[in-house]
What we know:
By secondary structure, this protein is of the alpha/beta class.
Amino acid sequence: MRYLVTGGGGFIGSNTVDELVRRGHSVTVLDDLSAGNEANLATVREQITFIRGTITDREIIEKACRGADYVLHLAARTSVPRSVKQPLETNQINVDGTLNVLIAARDAGVRRVVFASSSSIYGDTPTLPKHEGMPPAPISPYGVSKLVGELYGRVFHRTYGLDFVALRYFNVFGPRQDPGSPYSGVLSRFITAMRDGGQPSIFGDGEQSRDFTFVQNVVTANLQACETPGIGGRAFNLGTGGRYTLNYTLQLLEGFAGRPAKAKYGPQREGDIRDSQADISLAAQAFGYQPQINFEDGLRRTWDWYCSQR
Ligand code: UD1
């Protein structure tokens, strides 16, 4: 099969591309390398087609979609606080860009678009775990942008018959997550701080919790969501089903590093939700999703990977 992976040079994208190549699929990557990195594709570079460009460029996305059976649409601005600072830019990439991808996929006659949505569409609800029947109520521009992407996808499904599946990722972590910016995912920042003898920063009291999900689980689900017939037009949670506080993750990392974290506590971040946990039963039922790697094992593997990159 022929796959187009938007954002395929990024963290989740490049891990997904590796698996597609391993399974013998033909892969095109579209990435503007704003967050992604060509080094992420080093081992598969000769086996894929790489197009450097952005999803906000209609011509490029049209070209990239041509001949594709499946589009895995992962290109996005991924940071909640960055969206609070730059709502327009987040909207241009996550909303306008997604609309471009949907139009191009429709016109190219692709079999299905699988869209990287987010648990952030649920907002700060007290109900846990979060299930797909709950009304979306995002509290950040980022959450809004992901919800709008889902809504557009569903409308394209109904109106134009474009097959579309949204996967609501819950805090994905693992090898290749870029720790280099204040907007980077928390575990990549904690791990590299602990590795390099620094002090992790905690925004808030550290008792906020997330359903941290190891990237390999998401890679498997991405492929299942492409291949499983009859699930078009729907949205599914992708998490581990657990809930881990930042303080707990630091305790585990202290064990790996063999030293105290001496974390610095600061003010809570704007746009942050307090707790997050996925009900993953719908994805299990619809396409057989089962997280293969639990949080603790995933964290250990991720720690080992960052240590090997020093
Ligand atoms: C993350 C993803 C987002 C995704 C969502 C749900 C990133 C950058 N964001 O958002 O794309 O849609 O999960 O899957 O991957 N924190 C600290 N110290 C730090 C960094 C963060 O205490 O150095 C705190 C934050 O304030 C927040 C928590 O850690 O309370 C998680 O933050 P972050 O990793 O940015 O993820 P989310 O905002 O949950």
